[in-house]
Specification:
Largest sheet: 8 strands, mixed
Shape: elongated
Radius of gyration: 58 Å
Helix content: 40-55%
Structural class: alpha/beta
Number of strands: 10
Distance between the termini: 165 Å
Number of helices: 13
Length: about 400
């Protein structure tokens, strides 16, 4: 029985240890592994931070040399995504403080690094060590020293020549540097305009490239014009010479007749003003004059050398109607005498012909075309239209 109890107690202890270990393992934060190979890893130790944007997300697990490189194994919190193209960089916050490994750039979108990813040397970077800086400066000093560039005194000669060239030119050098600074400041201040100009030039050249065929055609035509001018250069030179002589004569004429030309221009302006004011009258004359000349030609009798016409300037209207018609055209309706209005009413009541002006005075529309109205009553042997045109056309 004692033996069985011992076995039961041992089994219980083992089960409890397993449960506790599982609980502890479950409480640990899930992590991902990452291996990076550096050319050297000064200051990186097991336990050094692994960061993103300066925020600690994991630690270095181990650092071990591997041929000409150093293998650094890291683990980081799996809740942080690292881009698939990330790099590992050793960052020294200062010369004396501990260094850490930074994964850059920060994740934004896209594929991520898988668990256990391996970054080669070309995807890692380390800072320049102070010893490397000293070694580089020492190499530079040796290259410029007596066993290097200055073996024949070339460097000393360069320094001496520079001293002589700059001797007494300090103010000019200062002014030059100040002017250069001002010029660069001006360019910086006008960077928007400068880049706008470059952009406009780019658009212009693009437009020229798009219109290449039209530009070629224009150039060809300009070349043809140039050839024609070259072929006619003698005539063109003679014409320009004659034009120069004529312009000289015109200049002399204008100078000698300045007052007369000024008076003529003033008079011409007056004439132009009169023509503008009489524009309607000129239009009426130009409309009526051809008909009047035609009628005069038809009225001329070449046998007797006389004008065979019957003078009836007022046509079928009486003198009173003629005068009132003139007044209607000359003055506003409110100033037309009452006698004219009474005359128009009387002619309308008796059914007699009314001139267009008297119809307008009564507020009636103008008379219809003679072709659209019935012929007036005439006595036998007389014409229906007693005007000059009617007489020339003959009776109907």
């Amino acid at each position: 029985m004692r033996h069985i109890r011992r076995w039961l107690a041992a089994a219980v202890i083992v089960v409890l240890a397993g449960v506790v270990g599982f609980a502890v393992w479950r409480r640990e934060t899930p992590t991902r592994g990452l291996v990076a190979h550096f050319s050297h890893a000064v200051g990186i130790l097991a336990g050094s931070d692994v960061r993103v944007l300066g925020v600690r997300i994991g630690t270095v697990v181990s650092v071990s040399p591997q041929g000409q490189t150093v293998r650094v194994e890291m683990r980081y919190d799996s809740s942080y995504e690292i881009p698939a193209g990330a790099q590992a960089v050793v960052v020294p916050p200062s010369i004396v403080s501990d260094r850490y490994v930074q994964l850059t750039p920060a994740y934004t979108s896209g594929a991520t690094l898988p668990d256990g990813a391996d970054l080669p040397v070309d995807r890692t970077a380390v800072p320049l060590e102070l010893d490397d800086v000293y070694a580089t400066l020492d190499d530079l000093n040796r290259a410029l020293g007596p066993n290097g560039a200055n073996a024949d005194g070339a460097l000393s000669g360069l320094v001496e020549t520079a001293r002589k060239n700059l001797d007494g030119n300090g103010q000019q050098l200062h002014d030059t540097l100040a002017g250069l600074s001002d010029a660069l400041s001006t360019v910086a201040d006008g960077s928007d305009d400068l880049f706008g100009t470059v952009d406009n030039l780019q658009q212009f050249t693009t437009a020229l490239a798009t219109s290449d065929s039209q530009v070629r055609e224009l150039n060809q035509r300009l070349a043809d014009v140039g050839e024609q001018l070259a072929a006619e250069r003698d005539d063109l030179a003679a014409a320009l010479h004659t034009l120069a002589t004529a312009l000289a004569d015109i200049t002399t004429f204008v100078r000698d007749n300045r007052e007369a030309l000024s008076a003529n221009v003033t008079a011409l302006a007056d004439i132009s003003a009169v023509l503008v004011r009489q524009q309607k009258a000129l239009i009426d004359v130009l409309d009526v004059a051809p008909l009047a000349v035609s009628n005069l030609n038809l009225a001329y009798n070449p046998r007797s050398g006389t004008l065979d016409t019957r003078d009836n300037a007022m046509g079928p209207y009486d003198p009173a109607s003629y005068v009132c018609s003139l007044l209607v055209n000359a003055v506003p309706a409110s100033q037309v005498p009452q006698a004219c209005l009474d005359l128009a009413k009387t002619l309308q009541q008796r059914g007699m012909r009314l001139p267009a002006e008297l119809r307008r005075l009564l507020g009636q529309p103008a008379a219809a075309s003679p072709k659209a109205t019935a012929p007036a009553q005439t006595t036998p042997g007389t014409t229906s239209d007693p005007t000059l045109g009617g007489i020339l056309r003959g009776g109907s």
